[in-house]
């Protein structure tokens, strides 16, 4: 005879877990806060003991931790930019003039155009440098309709911009490029002859040397806004 089939017991239904009462939630929150206070006090005690036992090493570790925290904060806010030099010509530069000096000529022109676009008063900033640019590397068009011709000179610190550049820009920015203003931006400086030649012009050009460029990069007033 076949064994009688066993009867299946009905599956027990699990009761939903009761939600903790408000008192339980508050008690757990107080306990968590107490645990955090105890942990913080324990860490503080360890730090004080380490400073007493090893003052020099502890000071060095603290300084490194503060420096790392500062770098992390600057990177998170976008204020810290790494120098990138892509093959296409455009580059993202830091606020250091040394970073600009490591760029190629076309990269420096694009960097100045990017810097000009930060100004809300600038409508467009177009790179137009080349072998026959006629002393115009970046054409800046302002929202009020003015046109600004920018000549870029990425030079080493000891290679200063001379008077011939002043004469070349002054002779073309109005008659040929139909601009209202001209700016010469360099990573180095200008010779006394260049400054004297510029001062003798009826409409002096805006001369931006390395220090003025650094102030502009760090949020200073652009040359056409001064």
Q: How does this model look, in words?
A:
By secondary structure, the protein is an alpha/beta fold. It contains seven helices and five strands. The chain starts with 21 loop residues before the first helix and ends in a 9-residue tail after the last helix. The longest helix is centred in the N-terminal third of the chain and has 32 residues, at 22-53. α6 links the parallel β4 and β5. The protein has a five-stranded mixed beta sheet with strand order 1-2-3-4-5, with helices on both faces. α1 crosses α2 and α5 (163-172) runs parallel beside α6. The protein has helices at 22-53, 55-77, 97-101, 105-117, 163-172, 192-199, 210-217, and strands at residues 122-127, 138-142, 147-153, 181-186, 206-208.
Give the tags.
226 residues, alpha/beta, five-stranded mixed beta sheet, 7 helices, 5 strands
- SS-based class: alpha/beta
CA-to-CA gap between the ends? 109 Å
**Low-pLDDT residue intervals, each spanning 5 or more residues:** 77-94
Overall geometric form: elongated
The biggest sheet, with number of strands, parallel, antiparallel or mixed sense and barrel status, is: 5 strands, mixed
Summarize the helix and strand pattern as letters. HHHHEEEHEHEH
Proportion of strand residues: 5-15%
How many strands?
Answer: 5
User: Which bin fits the share of residues in helices?
Assistant: 40-55%
Report the mean per-residue pLDDT as an integer: 80
Number of continuous helical runs: 7
**Alpha-carbon Rg, integer:** 33 Å
Task: Tell me the strand order in the biggest sheet.
Answer: 1-2-3-4-5
């Amino acid at each position: 005879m076949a064994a009688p089939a066993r009867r299946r017991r009905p599956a027990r239904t699990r009761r939903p877990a009761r939600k903790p009462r408000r008192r339980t939630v508050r008690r757990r929150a107080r306990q968590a806060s107490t645990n955090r206070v105890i942990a913080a006090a324990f860490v503080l005690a360890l730090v004080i003991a380490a400073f007493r036992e090893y003052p020099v090493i502890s000071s060095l570790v603290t300084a490194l931790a503060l420096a790392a925290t500062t770098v992390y904060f600057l990177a998170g806010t976008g204020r810290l930019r790494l120098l990138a030099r892509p093959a296409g010509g455009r580059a993202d530069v830091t606020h250091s003039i040394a970073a600009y000096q490591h760029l190629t000529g076309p990269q420096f022109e694009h960097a100045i155009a990017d810097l000009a676009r930060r100004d809300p008063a600038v409508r467009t900033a177009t790179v137009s440098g080349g072998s026959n640019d006629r002393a115009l590397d970046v054409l800046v068009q302002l929202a009020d309709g003015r046109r600004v011709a920018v000549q870029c000179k990425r030079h080493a610190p000891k290679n200063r911009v001379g008077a011939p550049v002043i004469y070349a820009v002054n002779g073309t920015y109005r008659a040929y490029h139909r601009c209202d203003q001209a700016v010469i931006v360099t990573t180095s400086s200008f010779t006394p002859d260049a400054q004297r030649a510029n001062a003798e012009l009826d409409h002096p050009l805006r001369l931006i040397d390395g220090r003025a460029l650094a102030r502009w990069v760090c949020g200073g007033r652009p040359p056409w806004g001064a």
